[in-house]
Design brief:
Elements (H helix, E strand, L loop, with lengths): L1 E6 L14 H14 L14 H7 L11 E2 L11 H4 L2 H4 L9 E2 H6 L3 H10 L4 E4 L6 H9 L2 E6 L2 H13 L6 E5 L2 H4 L7 E4 L24 H8 L6 E6 L4 H8 L4 E9 L2 E8 L9
Parallel strand pairs: 4-5, 4-7, 5-6, 7-8
Antiparallel strand pairs: 1-9, 2-3, 8-10, 9-10
The chain binds adenosine-5'-diphosphate.
């Protein structure tokens, strides 16, 4: 993986470092800072909170979750075959009963990448705002005291809970079924991880992926709404996003750091780090 620092005024490569060394060193520094802000507001667990009540409802698998299929080599649809071959890259213990709906197959973060991001985001309380089938939340549960994993789709929450159980980390994750934007006023955390809906694999067809106009949600609004919780934001975005757009979100000439993620020498995605998560100073 490669890392670069982008400022709002100029796009400039300041450093290219080996990611495998760096996060550990700087994560320890940052952890010290982030741990001083143990500011999780339990109001989101309060009696009057409708979203929270919903999340505590016992979820059972019923016929209406027809999208929830345990795929095997025999029933995997043709269009998912290329993901099936890589199933152990997605979850190394796929065979122990991992559940993913069709969307989950192409949107889950591969485990090696999720592990790196989790190391970098080490803190007390982290929010995974669009948790999907739980690939990131599971790894956050290994580096953070508490994970708040949110998704608007009940099937995803079912998969994520099941998958967290397989990894033995479900007790560190609070799952909330709800709309992240509506939950924001009630949430407190040290770090927020954003992996919004890119719109499926079709994002690859765009020369430049515009976060503001090409997703079902406005990616710039998402950043600004999230700063109401914290400035420590990790934003997982398509490889064809212009990093300058990510820097521009911050305003006032502030910077963000963008990592380019490669797997098997293929450029897969980018992660922008804001606030104290940056390892490179302004
Ligand atoms: P992609 O388009 O990259 O395949 P997805 O459609 O899988 O991404 O979206 C990522 C996740 O975000 C999905 O699990 C989806 O249910 C969830 N999601 C979408 N909108 C919201 C929202 N407003 N609040 C919380 N989760 C959401």
């Amino acid at each position: 993986m490669k890392r670069k620092n982008y400022s709002q005024k100029e796009t400039q490569e300041t450093q290219v470092l080996d990611l495998l060394d760096l996060p550990e060193k700087c994560a320890q520094d940052k952890k010290r800072r982030l741990l001083t802000e143990n500011n999780f507001d339990n109001s989101n667990e309060g009696e009057n909170n409708e979203e929270s009540k919903k999340s505590k409802k016992k979820i059972t698998i019923t016929d209406k979750h027809e999208r929830l299929i345990r795929y095997t080599s025999k029933n995997i649809p043709k269009m998912l075959k290329k993901y099936w071959i890589k199933r152990f890259d997605l979850f190394h213990n796929y065979d122990e009963g991992i559940l993913m709906d069709e969307e989950g197959w192409y949107s889950v973060t591969p485990e090696a990448i999720a592990t790196q991001i989790a190391e970098r985001c080490r803190c007390d309380v982290i929010i995974d705002a669009f948790c999907g089938v739980g690939g990131n939340a599971i790894q956050f549960a290994k580096t953070c005291q508490k994970v708040i994993a949110i998704d608007i789709d009940e099937t995803k929450i079912i998969c994520a809970k099941n998958n967290a159980q397989i990894y033995g980390v479900e007790d560190r994750i609070e799952f909330i079924l709800g709309d992240y934007f509506k939950l924001i006023p009630k949430l407190k955390a040290d770090v927020v991880f954003l992996s919004p809906p890119w719109g499926g694999p079709s994002y690859r067809e765009q020369k430049v992926f515009n976060l503001k106009t090409m997703m079902s949600i406005d990616g710039e609004k998402l950043y600004h709404e999230t700063t109401k919780i914290t400035n420590n934001i990790s934003y997982y975005i398509p490889r064809n996003t212009n990093p300058q757009q990510l820097a521009n979100f911050t305003g006032n000439g502030k910077t963000c750091e963008v990592q380019q993620i490669y797997m098997d020498e293929i450029f897969k995605a980018q992660v922008a780090y804001y606030g104290d998560l940056k390892c490179i100073d302004e």
